[in-house]
Fold:
Amino acid sequence: MEHIQDELTRNARIVSIQYLAIKSNPLFRRSTSIESGIGGINRLEENFNKYGHVAFSNEMLAKSTPGIVSYSSAPQEQVQTPFGWDIEKLVVDIIVESHDSSGVYKSVIHGYTDKYEASYTNRLDPSTRIFVDSVTNSKASIDPMTNVLGQNNIVSAYSVMTDPIHGDQSLTYDINFMQHVAIRPEDIIMGMAANATTINGIETNTLNTITDAATVAKMKDMNPLNNLGEVLTSTAKQQHSTDFHQSDTDRLLDTISHSIEYRVDDQPFFRRLSAVTHMARVGQFTIGEMEEAFGDTSHISVLTKSTMGTFSMDGDSSGVVSVPASKANMFLDASISYLRKLDIVDISFTVTNKTMDGSTESMIISPPASNNSNIDLIWSTNMALDQIKQFAFPLIAEGRYIVSVTVMLTRTDALVTMEFDGMGTESFSFPLLAYSLATPVIGTQQESDAIVNSVSGLTDFILGSTNETTDIIY
Structure:
């Protein structure tokens, strides 16, 4: 292994690994669309003329036009995993710690494997390949006055989209992985820069293609309303910048250059892995490669076996074709974006507006759990539930429907039970294996083009029609 200069990378060590053997039901992905009637567009324009880009915050969009984003009632496709859904795999949680003079850093790398093969002593096959699904980073700072280590604070959380075929041409998985692209806010803005061909020397038509590198998306972008708000906000800021010498394309390019996310390997665990395998940059590595970089992990590994997911036999499949199923899917995506951002991995809660005065109320049903033992779990849970109530629930209630929804979430799957506008109570089970490949930030090029066209139309109408003398509040 080559000499490692970086202190955090050199100090990185694996604290624990949890493997859960599971045979999961298939996961399905729905397409996202952005559309609004003239009433919704007028409200957006009116709010923008009054408040400036603040009109495009999650809070304002959730109040004024929550129905502007929607999921298709029918799934777009079944998510593809290595060797398919018929074989047993492992859900993996790797906890890594490192330190420097300022404090202790902790990362939780969550993923899944291509297979589950073990010896009679439960020693896992070293050729087992791990695909990273999400990463949460936190830091506990040392108080310079007392030299006491404080509580962990979440620094960043992101999902990782890895193409299991194109990442390594030596792999022979029998997968028809369609050409997928990322549909993050920066990708939508990039699509709007129709005349732009390169950014910092990189071809724009390859920036969001999920092929030769893992694509990273902020956890909060799993809420589709947040995606739209970020694009509208960034575009509004650039369009009303004080640099009148910039063309529209230059403004869009400037927005993109400030939006492009960091790489998955810009983190001690992956930098350490990169010394032994080039696959770290695409969010993949084998157990053997991990042990070459960090040493034997058998003494810090726990293997648990489960025949099926917790909710595999409960409710309808996530692939059922119905409006309530699509609403449940969208609410789950948005909820997970807030829960995982705060490293909450196991929780049950309910949200409803079926109240005497029509207000929205929420309640925790079962205590939450986290991979991180040194965080304020009560504060984190209350924060996440408040955000879910404010920004996720309006996606399905839209200010006009009576809805009660309960989510039971574990590390492996989720059960969403919903009573939607008098249509009766239905339950839907959602496996979470390879979950990053089923969120609103990934899709086909055709889906991406449709969203870009919709957002372009919105920005042209709302921003283009604004009187230049209007006072914009930033």
